[in-house]
């Protein structure tokens, strides 16, 4: 790494169009952007058009970001490397983002445990990296997820948890931060198979992590999940409405059924069948008052009855149908007061308003709007019907396709049907429209023999147009674009109708519901956190402290030696959208630089703020924070004074791991005091610091459960191994389909051969402190409970897992030295085997009580956080969690400190993909078992839009699979694969 550079600079504020100084990092309305004042704000709007204008401004001023990851292969084996390229776009333009410059990419195990998190440098809206599937990992379906910090402002909700877990935190706000979750984070799931026993013998065996329990499927009547989705949102009395439905097994597998829709007297009103992926649709004509409908059907010999949602007495039904070049929106109302209110119909695409219509109902309470389809962009369009008070009467998604993406943006020539061992390969890539600027394209070339079909097979086109707009997982999204026929159009419309979630909340965008923006787009690396008085935490130790007992802190920090006024709110950004050219936002006439207010704030100030209102500080007076950054022989010391108990500062430019010391002291104590403190008790972990300093931890903690199709093998015999030829294995054996192996036999001893995860003890301590479970000093009594909640999580039910602590593999009985066995544990009358207990006195245990002696924590469990709340953890099926303390070998130890000391990650460093050179004929016994033959994250095109790729085959006859992904400078996705 090069020399450290000082990031802090004097920022001269510019006057913005409201004659206010806008600076990034300011305390936006109690340290937050706050947009809207709830329902009362809508009461003063008076007209739907006024609300629509707010939505229009919001969509352009506060764009969202979307992520897509292109990976080098369709499956992996333990020991492989996963190569990825990230593309991040902004919703208002669909071009690569210029907002965020940092992306977070995470690798999670099939059970939902974090393997690794990487911070990816993203100067132009793209970045790339790699994960190694180390030998210590087990097989299964792994997940990659990716997000920017700006994305975490949207779709927040409270993760399910039991109330007892909140007692683990000192402040309620800390618990709220810990249990914050998100509706939509980019996710990609792929299979990882066992490491080949013989090099090159890629047998697709998948040995799952051993569990203590084997859960059998329930016998008897299958449990089904049948859900109804009225078009527009409600079934309304006095109208005719369409209702979509989706039928799945309890596990989420689609089923085909035939429904009889009956009224409360048992009369059949409609009969329908599921047509695609368990989905179908039926019509309820002339819905009478007080009616109650039910769906009756038979499945696998059993009868089922499900009630439909009860009709609303007052409201609107909206049907949206595409007919040729026109989109027709038909509105029916019932129960609305006379005179009928004027309604508004707004159409959005990617959160940007594309059309607005005043809706005047006729005497029958009906209205029809015809919208030329060429006014609506290709992709998901959202129709929202509302009144001037902000009440949403109906909401509907439709998919519009103008087929402008049907034309390939890239061609690949020179591909042979088969390549001989070590044969040179030369491919020519050509952009179809090179005049639009140099695109960003990544390319993967692999051995077709080990390709694996999965349902998670989206590309950048399907993700940006479809998957990113819908909640949950869309299996095999390419199906909807394979042909433009009535079957696929109907299937796509059904997919739109069964979505109850909206990426872009109209009520939030209109200000009807308030929005809190806690994060600004990251432009540079930063650290932020808060400082607390340690004596107050000592008094409150082990108790639940209500927020109102402390003086809550607000605001965020300015950089040293800068003087920037901090008086802007989110309304400033919204107001700036009204006058994008007034005063040119400080730009010279004719300057084409982006005038988006949010972008302009980032460009003008070159600051990277992070604010959050729920961080608590109990300081009575401000203090100085003295961070020290260490990497190799490089050291940098900084100082910053807190504001309302909080600090925020840029860091040096950092790659890979570095050490951070983070003490705090009174403002009247200078650098000499800090140096003196480092001479006395600096490495005494039991000494209390002057102040308790904690970093902000903002990364999402909780994995989403897999849908049935995310971790289900896909068996399409006509696609798995086609007739393209080529040798399927390096060992001349035919590769079989997936074999999943796991032990059977009900309840058994917890397998301790492979832990669920292994964590650094010091890192675990830092996390528990930063989440608010400790005071920054190690307490061996409560540490196991803190570690369990941090890494295992909360079961989301009114019970807990069985927690046991072990010490280098064995439990220790401190209460009595008269017994040499542990108490017997019984479950349903069955004795459960427990390892022998070491009888030890206090002296034997002393080493385990000090953080300096602890190397790793081995965590064993038969609990999967991805399956939180599952019925398999109810009744007698209480999971086990074992935390095994491992000391440093040979009586070794590590330095531990009085003040906070971290080992943190800077930008991830990614090595180049290795491509061997066989221009000199290899020796006869040379073996090359590569499955990914070539990976380049950024293809270099010349001025004519041409690029040539040269590589060599592996050591067997091979058919190529080629996948190119990318995006043009104008935002058009680029996709090319071997099927093209």
TrEMBL record:
Identify this protein by name: Macroglobulin domain-containing protein
């Amino acid at each position: 790494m090069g020399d450290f550079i000082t990031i802090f600079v004097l920022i001269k504020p510019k006057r913005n169009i409201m004659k206010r100084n806008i600076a990034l990092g300011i305390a936006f309305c109690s340290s937050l952007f706050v947009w809207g004042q709830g329902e009362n704000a809508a009461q003063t709007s008076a007209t739907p058009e006024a609300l629509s204008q707010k939505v229009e401004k919001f969509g352009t001023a506060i764009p969202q970001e979307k992520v897509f990851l292109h990976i080098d292969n369709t499956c992996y084996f333990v020991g492989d490397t996963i190569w990825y390229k990230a593309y991040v776009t902004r919703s208002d333009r669909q071009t690569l983002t210029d907002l965020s410059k940092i992306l977070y990419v995470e690798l999670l195990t099939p059970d939902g445990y974090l393997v690794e998190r990487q911070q990816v440098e993203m100067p132009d809206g793209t970045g790339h990296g790699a994960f190694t599937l180390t030998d210590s990992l087990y097989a299964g379906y792994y997940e990659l997820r990716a997000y920017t910090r700006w994305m975490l402002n949207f779709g927040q909700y409270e993760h399910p948890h039991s109330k007892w877990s909140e007692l683990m935190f000192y402040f309620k706000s800390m618990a709220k931060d810990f249990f914050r979750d998100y509706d939509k984070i980019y996710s990609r799931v792929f299979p990882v198979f066992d490491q080949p026993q013989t090099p090159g013998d890629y047998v697709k065996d998948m040995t799952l992590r051993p569990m203590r329990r084997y859960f059998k499927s329930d016998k008897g009547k299958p449990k089904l999940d049948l859900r109804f989705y009225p078009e527009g949102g409600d079934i309304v009395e006095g109208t005719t409405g369409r209702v979509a439905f989706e039928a799945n097994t309890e596990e989420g597998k689609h089923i085909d059924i035939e429904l009889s829709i009956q009224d409360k007297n048992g009369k059949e009103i409609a009969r329908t069948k599921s047509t695609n992926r368990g989905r179908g649709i039926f019509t309820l004509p002339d819905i009478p008052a007080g009616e109650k409908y039910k769906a009756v059907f038979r499945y696998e010999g059993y009868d089922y009855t499900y009630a439909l949602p009860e009709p609303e007495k007052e409201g609107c039904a909206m049907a949206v149908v595409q007919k040729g070049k026109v989109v027709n929106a038909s509105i029916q109302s019932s129960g609305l007061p006379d005179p009928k209110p004027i309604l508004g119909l707004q159409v959005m695409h990617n959160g940007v308003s594309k059309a607005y219509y005043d809706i005047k109902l006729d005497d029958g309470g009906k209205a029809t709007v015809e919208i030329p389809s060429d006014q609506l962009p290709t992709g998901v369009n959202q129709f929202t019907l509302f009144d001037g008070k902000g009440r949403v009467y109906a909401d509907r998604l439709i998919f519009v396709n103008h087929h402008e993406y049907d034309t390939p943006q890239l061609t690949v020539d020179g591909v042979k049907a088969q390549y001989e061992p070590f044969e040179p390969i030369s491919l020519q890539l050509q952009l179809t429209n090179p005049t639009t600027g140099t695109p960003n394209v990544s390319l993967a070339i692999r051995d077709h023999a080990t390709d694996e079909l999965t349902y998670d097979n989206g590309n950048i086109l399907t993700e940006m147009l479809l998957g990113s707009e819908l909640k949950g997982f869309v299996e095999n999204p390419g199906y909807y674009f394979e042909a433009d026929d009535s079957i696929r159009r109907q299937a796509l419309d059904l997919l739109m109708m069964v979505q109850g979630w909206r990426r872009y909340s109209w009520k939030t965008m209109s200000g009807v519901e308030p929005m809190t923006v806690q994060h600004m787009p990251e432009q540079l690396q930063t650290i932020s956190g808060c400082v607390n008085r340690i004596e107050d935490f000592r008094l409150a130790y082990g108790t639940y402290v209500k927020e109102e007992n402390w003086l809550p802190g607000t605001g965020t920090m300015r950089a040293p030696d800068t003087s920037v006024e901090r008086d802007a709110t989110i309304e400033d950004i919204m107001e700036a959208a009204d006058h994008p050219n007034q005063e040119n936002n400080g730009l010279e006439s004719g300057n084409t630089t982006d005038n988006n207010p949010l972008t302009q704030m980032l460009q003008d100030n070159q600051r990277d703020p992070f604010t959050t209102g729920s961080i608590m500080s109990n300081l009575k007076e401000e203090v100085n924070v003295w961070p020290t950054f260490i990497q190799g022989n490089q050291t940098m010391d900084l100082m910053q004074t807190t504001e309302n108990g909080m600090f925020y500062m840029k860091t040096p430019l950092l790659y890979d791991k570095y050490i951070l010391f983070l003490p705090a002291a009174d403002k009247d104590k200078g650098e000499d005091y800090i140096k003196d403190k480092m001479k006395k008790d600096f490495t005494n972990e039991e000494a209390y610091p002057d102040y308790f300093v904690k970093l902000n931890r903002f990364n999402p903690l909780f994995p989403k459960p897999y849908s049935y199709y995310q971790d289900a093998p896909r068996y399409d015999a006509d696609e798995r191994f086609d007739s393209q030829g080529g040798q399927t294995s390096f060992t001349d054996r035919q590769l079989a389909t997936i074999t999943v192996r796991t032990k059977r036999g009900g309840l058994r001893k917890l397998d301790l051969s492979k832990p669920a995860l292994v964590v650094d003890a010091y890192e675990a301590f830092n996390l528990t402190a930063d989440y608010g479970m400790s005071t920054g000093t190690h307490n061996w009594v409560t540490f196991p409970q803190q570690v369990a909640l941090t890494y295992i999580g909360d079961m989301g039910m009114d019970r807990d897992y069985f927690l046991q602590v072990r010490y280098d593999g064995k439990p220790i009985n401190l209460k009595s030295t008269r017994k040499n066995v542990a108490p017997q544990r019984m479950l349903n009358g069955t004795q459960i085997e427990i390892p022998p207990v070491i009888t030890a006195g206090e002296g034997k245990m002393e080493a385990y009580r000090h953080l300096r002696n602890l190397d790793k924590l081995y965590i064993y469990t038969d609990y999967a956080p991805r399956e939180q709340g599952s019925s398999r953890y109810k009744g007698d099926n209480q999971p086990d969690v074992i935390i095994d303390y491992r000391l440093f070998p040979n009586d070794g130890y590590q330095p531990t400190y009085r003040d906070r000391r971290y080992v943190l990650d800077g930008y991830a460093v990614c090595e180049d993909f290795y491509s061997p050179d066989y221009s000199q004929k290899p020796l006869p016994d040379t073996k090359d078992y590569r499955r990914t033959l070539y990976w380049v994250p950024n293809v270099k095109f010349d001025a004519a839009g041409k690029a040539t790729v040269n590589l060599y085959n592996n050591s067997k006859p091979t058919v190529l699979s080629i996948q190119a992904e990318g995006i043009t400078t104008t935002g058009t996705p680029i996709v090319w694969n071997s099927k093209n």
